Automatic annotation (TrEMBL):
The lineage of its organism: Bacteria, Pseudomonadati, Pseudomonadota, Gammaproteobacteria, Oceanospirillales. Residues 23-276 form the EAL domain. The chain holds residues 809 to 1086 of 1111 of the full protein. This is EAL domain-containing protein. It comes from the Bacteria. Signal peptide: none annotated. It comes from Neptunomonas marina.
Length: 278
Protein backbone atom coordinates (compact mmCIF):
# COMPACT_ATOMS: atom_id res chain seq x y z
CA UNK A 1 0.00 0.00 0.00
CA UNK A 2 0.87 3.66 -0.26
CA UNK A 3 1.15 3.94 3.45
CA UNK A 4 3.60 1.10 3.66
CA UNK A 5 5.51 2.64 0.82
CA UNK A 6 5.80 5.89 2.71
CA UNK A 7 6.97 4.11 5.84
CA UNK A 8 9.54 2.21 3.86
CA UNK A 9 10.76 5.45 2.39
CA UNK A 10 11.03 7.05 5.81
CA UNK A 11 12.98 4.04 7.11
CA UNK A 12 15.27 4.18 4.13
CA UNK A 13 15.72 7.90 4.44
CA UNK A 14 16.69 7.81 8.09
CA UNK A 15 18.77 4.69 8.26
CA UNK A 16 20.35 4.09 4.91
CA UNK A 17 20.09 7.43 3.22
CA UNK A 18 23.36 8.75 4.52
CA UNK A 19 25.31 5.69 3.49
CA UNK A 20 23.80 5.66 0.01
CA UNK A 21 24.42 9.37 -0.34
CA UNK A 22 28.05 8.99 0.75
CA UNK A 23 28.52 6.29 -1.78
CA UNK A 24 26.98 8.29 -4.61
CA UNK A 25 29.11 11.25 -3.64
CA UNK A 26 32.19 9.06 -3.64
CA UNK A 27 31.36 7.63 -7.06
CA UNK A 28 30.68 11.07 -8.44
CA UNK A 29 33.91 12.54 -7.06
CA UNK A 30 35.86 9.53 -8.34
CA UNK A 31 34.80 10.22 -11.92
CA UNK A 32 36.86 13.40 -12.14
CA UNK A 33 39.58 12.40 -9.71
CA UNK A 34 42.12 11.17 -12.27
CA UNK A 35 41.93 14.30 -14.39
CA UNK A 36 42.14 16.49 -11.28
CA UNK A 37 45.32 14.64 -10.29
CA UNK A 38 43.94 13.53 -6.94
CA UNK A 39 45.55 10.08 -6.94
CA UNK A 40 49.07 9.48 -5.74
CA UNK A 41 51.14 6.37 -5.14
CA UNK A 42 52.84 5.66 -1.87
CA UNK A 43 55.47 2.96 -1.66
CA UNK A 44 56.16 0.50 1.14
CA UNK A 45 59.55 -1.22 1.33
CA UNK A 46 59.92 -4.98 1.13
CA UNK A 47 62.98 -6.24 2.96
CA UNK A 48 65.07 -9.29 2.08
CA UNK A 49 65.60 -11.30 5.28
CA UNK A 50 69.00 -12.62 4.13
CA UNK A 51 70.60 -9.25 3.34
CA UNK A 52 68.43 -7.18 5.68
CA UNK A 53 68.09 -4.67 2.83
CA UNK A 54 65.25 -3.28 0.79
CA UNK A 55 64.67 -5.48 -2.25
CA UNK A 56 61.52 -3.88 -3.58
CA UNK A 57 58.45 -1.82 -2.84
CA UNK A 58 54.70 -2.24 -3.03
CA UNK A 59 52.82 0.59 -4.70
CA UNK A 60 49.73 1.58 -2.70
CA UNK A 61 47.18 4.04 -4.01
CA UNK A 62 46.18 7.17 -2.10
CA UNK A 63 43.25 9.45 -2.92
CA UNK A 64 42.82 12.95 -1.54
CA UNK A 65 39.64 14.73 -2.65
CA UNK A 66 38.70 18.35 -1.86
CA UNK A 67 35.17 17.34 -0.79
CA UNK A 68 35.81 13.97 0.86
CA UNK A 69 39.31 14.47 2.23
CA UNK A 70 41.62 11.46 2.32
CA UNK A 71 39.74 8.32 1.30
CA UNK A 72 41.31 4.94 2.14
CA UNK A 73 41.79 2.32 -0.57
CA UNK A 74 39.79 -0.24 1.43
CA UNK A 75 36.82 2.09 0.92
CA UNK A 76 37.28 3.35 -2.64
CA UNK A 77 38.86 0.37 -4.44
CA UNK A 78 35.74 -1.85 -4.13
CA UNK A 79 33.60 1.00 -5.46
CA UNK A 80 36.05 1.66 -8.30
CA UNK A 81 35.81 -2.04 -9.13
CA UNK A 82 32.02 -2.05 -9.28
CA UNK A 83 31.83 1.12 -11.36
CA UNK A 84 34.62 0.04 -13.71
CA UNK A 85 36.69 3.13 -12.80
CA UNK A 86 39.40 0.74 -11.60
CA UNK A 87 40.38 0.21 -15.25
CA UNK A 88 41.67 3.76 -15.93
CA UNK A 89 42.78 4.15 -12.30
CA UNK A 90 44.67 0.84 -12.50
CA UNK A 91 46.45 2.01 -15.65
CA UNK A 92 47.49 5.16 -13.83
CA UNK A 93 48.92 2.99 -11.03
CA UNK A 94 50.95 0.89 -13.49
CA UNK A 95 52.29 3.95 -15.29
CA UNK A 96 53.21 5.78 -12.08
CA UNK A 97 54.83 2.70 -10.57
CA UNK A 98 56.97 2.11 -13.67
CA UNK A 99 57.87 5.78 -13.87
CA UNK A 100 59.15 5.55 -10.29
CA UNK A 101 61.01 2.31 -11.07
CA UNK A 102 62.74 4.01 -14.00
CA UNK A 103 63.78 6.99 -11.88
CA UNK A 104 65.18 4.69 -9.18
CA UNK A 105 67.10 2.70 -11.75
CA UNK A 106 68.61 5.90 -13.13
CA UNK A 107 69.79 6.69 -9.59
CA UNK A 108 71.46 3.32 -9.30
CA UNK A 109 68.78 1.85 -7.05
CA UNK A 110 67.79 -1.71 -7.80
CA UNK A 111 64.18 -1.90 -6.64
CA UNK A 112 61.44 -4.17 -7.89
CA UNK A 113 58.00 -2.59 -7.80
CA UNK A 114 54.87 -4.54 -6.92
CA UNK A 115 51.46 -3.39 -8.16
CA UNK A 116 48.04 -4.64 -7.02
CA UNK A 117 45.67 -5.76 -9.77
CA UNK A 118 41.90 -6.06 -9.29
CA UNK A 119 39.87 -8.81 -10.97
CA UNK A 120 37.93 -6.20 -12.94
CA UNK A 121 41.13 -5.07 -14.71
CA UNK A 122 41.45 -8.48 -16.34
CA UNK A 123 38.18 -7.94 -18.19
CA UNK A 124 40.05 -5.27 -20.17
CA UNK A 125 41.44 -7.25 -23.11
CA UNK A 126 44.29 -4.79 -23.52
CA UNK A 127 45.65 -5.21 -19.98
CA UNK A 128 48.58 -7.46 -20.92
CA UNK A 129 49.59 -5.40 -23.93
CA UNK A 130 49.27 -2.19 -21.92
CA UNK A 131 51.66 -3.51 -19.27
CA UNK A 132 54.19 -4.77 -21.82
CA UNK A 133 54.00 -1.49 -23.76
CA UNK A 134 54.59 0.55 -20.61
CA UNK A 135 57.60 -1.59 -19.66
CA UNK A 136 58.95 -0.92 -23.13
CA UNK A 137 58.24 2.80 -23.02
CA UNK A 138 60.11 3.16 -19.72
CA UNK A 139 62.89 0.87 -21.03
CA UNK A 140 62.57 -1.48 -18.09
CA UNK A 141 63.21 -5.21 -17.88
CA UNK A 142 59.96 -7.05 -17.17
CA UNK A 143 61.52 -8.51 -14.02
CA UNK A 144 61.30 -5.05 -12.41
CA UNK A 145 57.55 -5.49 -12.16
CA UNK A 146 55.62 -7.75 -9.81
CA UNK A 147 51.86 -8.13 -10.02
CA UNK A 148 49.93 -8.92 -6.85
CA UNK A 149 46.67 -10.75 -7.33
CA UNK A 150 44.29 -12.40 -4.91
CA UNK A 151 42.48 -15.69 -4.99
CA UNK A 152 39.27 -13.80 -5.79
CA UNK A 153 40.58 -13.21 -9.30
CA UNK A 154 41.18 -16.92 -9.92
CA UNK A 155 37.82 -17.85 -8.34
CA UNK A 156 36.09 -15.53 -10.80
CA UNK A 157 36.88 -18.10 -13.47
CA UNK A 158 37.16 -15.41 -16.14
CA UNK A 159 38.65 -17.17 -19.18
CA UNK A 160 41.14 -14.42 -20.02
CA UNK A 161 42.89 -14.55 -16.65
CA UNK A 162 44.94 -17.66 -17.20
CA UNK A 163 46.20 -16.49 -20.61
CA UNK A 164 47.02 -13.03 -19.28
CA UNK A 165 48.99 -14.40 -16.33
CA UNK A 166 50.86 -16.87 -18.52
CA UNK A 167 51.73 -14.20 -21.08
CA UNK A 168 52.96 -11.78 -18.44
CA UNK A 169 54.90 -14.46 -16.60
CA UNK A 170 56.51 -15.67 -19.85
CA UNK A 171 57.55 -12.09 -20.54
CA UNK A 172 59.40 -12.06 -17.19
CA UNK A 173 56.94 -10.20 -14.98
CA UNK A 174 56.71 -11.83 -11.57
CA UNK A 175 53.37 -12.88 -10.13
CA UNK A 176 52.52 -12.83 -6.42
CA UNK A 177 49.59 -14.36 -4.56
CA UNK A 178 48.43 -11.62 -2.17
CA UNK A 179 46.69 -12.19 1.21
CA UNK A 180 47.78 -15.84 1.17
CA UNK A 181 45.92 -18.06 3.62
CA UNK A 182 42.68 -16.07 3.75
CA UNK A 183 40.89 -18.02 1.01
CA UNK A 184 39.88 -21.61 0.61
CA UNK A 185 41.60 -22.75 -2.55
CA UNK A 186 44.91 -20.94 -2.56
CA UNK A 187 46.89 -24.16 -2.54
CA UNK A 188 45.50 -25.59 -5.75
CA UNK A 189 45.87 -22.22 -7.47
CA UNK A 190 49.56 -22.11 -6.60
CA UNK A 191 50.05 -25.20 -8.72
CA UNK A 192 47.86 -24.12 -11.60
CA UNK A 193 49.09 -20.60 -12.21
CA UNK A 194 52.61 -19.23 -12.77
CA UNK A 195 53.22 -17.77 -9.30
CA UNK A 196 56.67 -16.70 -8.14
CA UNK A 197 55.84 -15.45 -4.67
CA UNK A 198 53.28 -15.82 -1.90
CA UNK A 199 52.53 -13.00 0.49
CA UNK A 200 51.34 -14.41 3.81
CA UNK A 201 48.39 -12.37 5.04
CA UNK A 202 49.03 -10.13 8.01
CA UNK A 203 46.26 -11.81 10.03
CA UNK A 204 48.69 -14.74 10.52
CA UNK A 205 51.54 -12.46 11.58
CA UNK A 206 49.71 -10.26 14.08
CA UNK A 207 49.74 -12.82 16.92
CA UNK A 208 52.71 -14.81 15.69
CA UNK A 209 54.62 -14.52 18.96
CA UNK A 210 51.62 -15.58 21.09
CA UNK A 211 49.74 -18.10 19.02
CA UNK A 212 51.38 -21.45 18.37
CA UNK A 213 48.70 -22.33 15.78
CA UNK A 214 49.73 -19.29 13.75
CA UNK A 215 53.36 -20.35 14.06
CA UNK A 216 52.50 -23.80 12.73
CA UNK A 217 50.50 -22.36 9.84
CA UNK A 218 53.18 -19.87 8.83
CA UNK A 219 55.87 -22.48 9.11
CA UNK A 220 53.85 -24.92 6.99
CA UNK A 221 53.11 -22.22 4.40
CA UNK A 222 56.81 -21.41 4.11
CA UNK A 223 57.91 -25.00 3.57
CA UNK A 224 55.04 -25.70 1.21
CA UNK A 225 55.80 -22.60 -0.90
CA UNK A 226 59.51 -23.42 -0.94
CA UNK A 227 58.65 -26.96 -1.98
CA UNK A 228 56.86 -25.51 -4.99
CA UNK A 229 59.84 -23.29 -5.78
CA UNK A 230 58.14 -20.08 -4.68
CA UNK A 231 59.51 -17.41 -2.40
CA UNK A 232 57.64 -16.17 0.64
CA UNK A 233 57.03 -12.68 2.01
CA UNK A 234 55.28 -12.03 5.33
CA UNK A 235 52.97 -8.98 5.44
CA UNK A 236 52.15 -6.74 8.37
CA UNK A 237 55.36 -7.31 10.33
CA UNK A 238 55.29 -4.77 13.15
CA UNK A 239 57.91 -5.90 15.66
CA UNK A 240 61.58 -6.91 15.76
CA UNK A 241 60.55 -10.14 17.47
CA UNK A 242 58.29 -11.11 14.55
CA UNK A 243 61.08 -10.18 12.12
CA UNK A 244 63.58 -12.44 13.93
CA UNK A 245 61.11 -15.30 14.20
CA UNK A 246 60.22 -15.15 10.50
CA UNK A 247 63.89 -15.09 9.58
CA UNK A 248 64.50 -18.16 11.76
CA UNK A 249 61.57 -19.87 10.05
CA UNK A 250 63.23 -19.40 6.66
CA UNK A 251 60.86 -16.75 5.34
CA UNK A 252 62.49 -14.85 2.46
CA UNK A 253 61.20 -11.31 2.90
CA UNK A 254 59.01 -9.09 5.05
CA UNK A 255 56.92 -5.98 4.64
CA UNK A 256 55.49 -3.96 7.51
CA UNK A 257 55.55 -1.01 9.83
CA UNK A 258 58.64 -2.41 11.62
CA UNK A 259 60.71 -1.22 8.64
CA UNK A 260 58.50 1.51 7.17
CA UNK A 261 54.93 2.52 6.50
CA UNK A 262 53.96 3.28 2.91
CA UNK A 263 55.57 6.66 2.09
CA UNK A 264 55.54 9.12 -0.84
CA UNK A 265 57.86 8.53 -3.79
CA UNK A 266 60.42 11.18 -2.80
CA UNK A 267 60.64 9.89 0.76
CA UNK A 268 61.12 6.34 -0.54
CA UNK A 269 63.92 7.56 -2.82
CA UNK A 270 65.68 9.25 0.10
CA UNK A 271 65.32 6.14 2.26
CA UNK A 272 66.71 3.87 -0.45
CA UNK A 273 69.60 6.21 -1.25
CA UNK A 274 70.51 6.47 2.43
CA UNK A 275 70.49 2.70 2.72
CA UNK A 276 72.60 2.18 -0.40
CA UNK A 277 75.40 4.41 0.92
CA UNK A 278 75.38 2.82 4.35
P1 LIG B 1 47.10 -5.01 0.52
O1 LIG B 1 47.43 -5.21 -0.93
O2 LIG B 1 47.06 -6.22 1.37
O3 LIG B 1 48.16 -3.94 1.05
C1 LIG B 1 48.76 -3.99 2.31
C2 LIG B 1 48.03 -3.09 3.29
O4 LIG B 1 48.56 -3.33 4.59
C3 LIG B 1 48.24 -1.61 3.03
O5 LIG B 1 47.05 -0.91 3.37
C4 LIG B 1 49.37 -1.27 4.00
O6 LIG B 1 49.41 0.10 4.37
C5 LIG B 1 49.00 -2.13 5.17
N1 LIG B 1 50.16 -2.46 6.02
C6 LIG B 1 51.43 -2.60 5.63
N2 LIG B 1 52.23 -2.93 6.68
C7 LIG B 1 51.42 -3.01 7.76
C8 LIG B 1 51.68 -3.31 9.16
O7 LIG B 1 52.79 -3.58 9.60
N3 LIG B 1 50.59 -3.29 9.98
C9 LIG B 1 49.34 -2.99 9.52
N4 LIG B 1 48.34 -2.99 10.40
N5 LIG B 1 49.07 -2.71 8.22
C10 LIG B 1 50.11 -2.70 7.35
P2 LIG B 1 46.40 0.19 2.42
O8 LIG B 1 47.47 0.99 1.74
O9 LIG B 1 45.37 0.91 3.20
O10 LIG B 1 45.71 -0.67 1.28
C11 LIG B 1 44.60 -1.48 1.58
C12 LIG B 1 44.24 -2.35 0.41
O11 LIG B 1 43.75 -1.57 -0.69
C13 LIG B 1 45.41 -3.14 -0.15
O12 LIG B 1 45.67 -4.26 0.66
C14 LIG B 1 44.88 -3.48 -1.53
O13 LIG B 1 44.01 -4.57 -1.47
C15 LIG B 1 44.08 -2.23 -1.88
N6 LIG B 1 44.89 -1.35 -2.74
C16 LIG B 1 45.77 -0.38 -2.42
N7 LIG B 1 46.31 0.20 -3.51
C17 LIG B 1 45.77 -0.45 -4.58
C18 LIG B 1 45.91 -0.33 -6.01
O14 LIG B 1 46.70 0.46 -6.54
N8 LIG B 1 45.17 -1.18 -6.77
C19 LIG B 1 44.31 -2.09 -6.23
N9 LIG B 1 43.60 -2.90 -7.07
N10 LIG B 1 44.16 -2.25 -4.91
C20 LIG B 1 44.88 -1.44 -4.09
CA1 LIG C 1 49.01 -6.17 -2.01
CA1 LIG D 1 57.24 -16.25 -13.34
CA1 LIG E 1 48.03 -8.20 1.24
Amino acid sequence: SKRQGRNTYTFFNHNMGKEVYQRLLLEEQMLGALSRNEFELHFQPQVCLVSGKMSGVEALLRWTNPVLGAVGPDLFIPIAEESGQIVPIGKFVITEALSAAQAWQQQGLDLRVAVNLSPRQFRDENLTQFILDELNRFELAASVLELEITEGLLLSGHPGVSDALTQLSDAGVSIAMDDFGTGYSSLSYLRRYPFDLVKIDRSFIRDLMLDSADQELVSAAISMAHGLGLSVLAEGVETEAQWARLKAMGCDAIQGFVFSKPIPRDALTRLALAESTR
